[in-house]
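Long-time lurker. I teach an intro course on protein structure, and each term I like to show students one example going from raw sequence to a predicted 3D structure in token notation. This year I'd like something fresh instead of my usual example. Would anyone be willing to generate the tokens for the chain below so I can use it in lecture? Attribution to the forum is fine with me.
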Amino acid sequence: MKAEPSFDDSASRQPFTSFYKLGPVMGNGAFSTVREGLYKNANSRAALYAIKIVTKSKLSREDLDALEDEVGILKELRHPNVVKLYDFFEEQILFYLVMEKMTGGELFDRIVSRSYYNEKDARDLCKILLDAMCYIHANKIAHRDLKPENLLLATDDDDSFVKIADFGFAKKCKDDACLSTQCGTPGYVVSKHRLFIELSYNTIYLT
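-- Reply from a regular --
Happy to contribute to a lecture. Here you go:
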């Protein structure tokens, strides 16, 4: 039996429930629910994954296109610091995304819970994220919603084992005009006025 899932499972045209047993709810969104899923073929109670279950009827045409983009992008990415998509099932009513299970929660919550975050920790974390982003950009992909809430920790006891998640706004850059859409989380989006000031300051500083 296979130790972990792969896209061969969904390609077999067998239903999702042939391969997985759903467990407790891990989170909820506007269009989806994330539940723990046990991969039956591994024959191990430790073979647990995060199953994102999306209700088709709640999605607009634009949402469906975005989901297809997200799945296509995640299929391409295989990096230790990018959350992995193992498989994707499309059934009559639901989509199932079989994702890597992250047990450490959001980096944002971990930072808030700590009494301090020293320079070395910040430096080490930035190096990891920059390496992952270089990989993503080398594959001509823009994440477009990078923020602490979309940086997940693999475990409870390691602040540096972080992975980039949520590629719902991500875009494959096929040409120079592909990134014209305004998107992202408002609280993290730099305003045009502030961006102009920062770019001007950096130009003067570098000169």
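Some talking points for your students: Strands lie at 20-28, 32-39, 48-55, 85-90, 94-99, 141-142, 151-153, 162-164, 171-172. Residues 119-138 form the longest helix (20 residues).
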